[in-house]
Every structure is written in C-alpha cells, then in structure tokens.
Specification:
The chain is mostly helical and about 160 residues long. The chain is built from seven helices and two strands. Strand 1 and strand 2 form a beta hairpin. This is DYW domain-containing protein.
C-alpha cells in the first residue's frame, strides 16, 4: 500500500472480514484497529456481533469482556426527526420524550396492525443471548421506530409511506 492504513480503512476491512465470515482475519483486523485507537467501540461491537451471528457465543462474550476490562463503552445509536419546528432525538427504548406515552401507545397500535398483516420479526438478527420476549421488545422499540411514530403523530411522515416499520 502506498500509505499507512488509518482507522477508517481497518474498520472497512473488519466489516468485509465479517461479511465474508473470515473470523480469524477479523480478529487480527480488530486488533490493528485497536492499536490505532484502543477506545474504538466499533472494533469490539463489529467483532462481537460477527461472532454472535456465527453462533460463537463464547468468543462474543470474550470480546465484550475485553471491552469491559478496557472500560470502553458502546455508544448507542440515535435516530432523529424534525417536527413541530425542532429536531427530536430518540434512542432505543427511549422514555425521555415529553410525549412518550402517546408515542408508545401509537407504536403498539402500529405493531399490532402489521402483525395482523403478516409481519414476523426476524429474531435471529438479534445478536444477544436473551429471551425471545426481550428480543421482540428490543425490535419493537428501536430508535427508528420511535422517531417514525413521533413523525406520524405530528404529520411529519406521510401516512402510507412507512416501509421501515
């Protein structure tokens, strides 16, 4: 290579190793990424999720332990939507919004409706060893769903245009 690889390049390589299910190289690639930035939560998260997706739970736990031992915290994902003249930010299972009760009520209504239409959550995509009920709850209350539901309540998102819910 005509240049020294930076963290972004190692992160791309790590993601490609995961995509091609080459876990030995993924481990080494994550180490290289962590040499550049030992606090890079993405290196741990990508690798742990890759192990979990291949059923290698002991290896996934080892990565999470390594992350915890180094006191690295995973930054949670956020979703935001502009409505009523301001930007509203949501985290997964977020209960801080002033209209939380209304948002959760509407979201429960929407989820029940799409289940009647045949929606079945793909619980295998949840890469944590938790009960099925907890996986379903985590999928229901994703930050994206909360933001979209808020948008629907405010007329920000045109009805009939929701594909991601």
């Amino acid at each position: 290579m005509p240049f020294k690889p930076d963290a972004a390049l190692w992160r791309v390589l790590l993601s490609k190793c995961v995509y091609h299910v080459n876990m030995d190289i993924a481990w080494r690639t994550s180490d290289r990424l962590l040499e550049i930035n030992p606090m890079d939560d993405s290196a741990y998260v990508i690798l742990a999720n890759a192990y979990a997706s291949t059923g290698r739970w002991d290896d996934a736990r080892e990565v999470w332990k390594r992350m915890k031992d180094k006191k690295v915290r995973k930054e949670g994902g956020k979703s935001w939507i502009e409505g009523l003249g301001e930007v509203h930010v949501f985290l997964a299972d977020d209960r801080r919004h002033e209209r939380t009760d209304e948002i959760y009520s509407k979201l429960a209504e929407l989820m029940e409706e799409i289940e009647k239409l045949g929606y079945v959550p793909i619980l295998a995509e949840m890469l944590h060893e938790v009960e099925e009920k907890e996986k379903k709850k985590a999928l229901w209350y994703h930050s994206e769903k909360l933001a979209l539901t808020f948008g629907l309540l405010n007329g920000t998102v045109p009805s009939g245009k929701l594909c991601g819910l």
